[in-house]
Amino acid sequence: MDFVVLVKVVPAAEELEYDAERFTVVRAAAKLFLNPFDQRALRVALELRRPGERVTVISMGPPGAREPLREARVHGADDVRLVSDPRLVGSDTLATARVLAAAIGRVAHDVVVAGAWTTDSETGQVPPELAALLGVPVLTGARAIRRDPGGPGIEITVDTPLGWATYRATAPLVVSVGEKIAKPLRAAPEAVASVPMEAVSVLSMAELGLRPELGGLAGSPTRVESVTVDAPSRHPRIFGDGPIDERVARAIDVLRPMLSVPAVPVPVLPPPPSRLADEREAIVLTSDGEGRLDPSALGTLSEVRRAWPGCWPSALWIGGPPTESDTYRLDLAGALGGYVVPGLRPPLDARAAAGAAGALLDRRPHAIAALFPSDPFGREIAGLLAGRRGLGLVGDAVALAADADGLLFSKPSFGGRSIARIRSRTSPALATVRPGAFLAATGSAPGGGFGWTVVPSISIAPAFERTASGAELSFGAGFDGRDVVVAVGLGVGGPEGVERLRPAIHAWGAALGATRRVVDAGWVPRQLQIGLTGRSISPRLGLLLGVGGSVNHLIGWKRARALLAVNRDPEAPVFRDVDVGIVGELDAVVPALVGPLARALGRG
Question: pTM above the 0.85 mark?
């Protein structure tokens, strides 16, 4: 079994420079290093390799990437190859996947391993798009991989929206790995410097047999229209002097008027279009990998009606059938049509689900868009569709808009410090939508009424056999519908610190969330992560306890009505991006805060 590891060389975020004309990152201007997620992928492949098997590292990037890629040789990669060509500048994920597929085709490969994310783009789209181009199945977000002793089987455990699932697989396949699977590899600078530059071979598009128009901006079905700085809009009031009780009292006085209004107004649906034109239909996947209603899809349906005038959303349900309650909620959220693909039994396989979505697109070829949740299941389906059909795919959309030239999607970029507005040059446009980005319309009566159309079932055998699964969250747990959310950071001190906060969280009627570093440490389940690679939420009040204040985490709180932070460090970055801050030790501030805040919330 031979392994190919995809490694991206990324810039340090604080050193990024930006080409305002091309809307691209100038990577040569910043210090470059191996993406930490891909370092994990390399460790996994090297540990899975047996005598006589090879590990090949393939990367795509500027000529300067050759230097840091030597680190892969230090760790034991048999071959390291860099695809570098000036005509690749500005490549989107599908153009990148095409180039990588061509490079992979030139080496022995059974299993392709990649990181689930890159620190500069965080889309998670390349592995499923690549799998589609290679014609092999894909699993994303692996937390553990094990080979059968002496056999061809592979056991892969992945994260799911509610917990985890284990699958049995055989090569060939593509798999991406998450943070939990291993620590990133690290090599001493002197060891990397001792590797000759010639140890990393360089390939051009011509050497791969690729036409120039397949790479760069010309070969990318999506294009960045603009990038704007996403600056904080809050005006912090920080209380760090005087007795703890006085700090708390002053903080509550500032918070009280903020808590008296809803976090975000519930959107009102505009009237439906007078004619449901085929070319204005936006298909929204509304079921999850277990064949249940995906609550985040309700907000997406409502946002299509609000943000894209003249467009109308239809609900796609794979597996099922949907219940009367599900149908009512979809109707209420604004769906004006619905399609059921029966015959696929949960747990759903992404390849079969992508086939079902593709079958619907064949029946509705003039649809303007197809939207999926930005979770592992949705990203795999969208990536497979994009790769198979050559469609533009925007990942992790947090806003929708339209102009005279068509649909626009906004997504966080450059580590969450800015917002990129992207247009797809293909129809339908594909996008994944960040869970929690949009609020669902609500009311006392359905929005328009619709019936379900049955789409003939397709026959695609599951690529993997699920052998075990477990829930780290009960169904329905999490942030949906909660008006108070507490996020814990490393400052809580560990799992025992999280447990000490439970009585306060209960008194405030709050949901528990966390930063990525807390999730990586295993203190709380990954499904409770808030931020760039987690959830976006819109509570009436967010409490950030022991949170340092990384931009990647704070981006998940953009729509919160009020933010209160508690940290013992008066210089903590979090205090720059909240409404109210209390400086002090958590063990002193939280007990003093429990009663006054509960009363301010109407729960005391």
Answer: yes
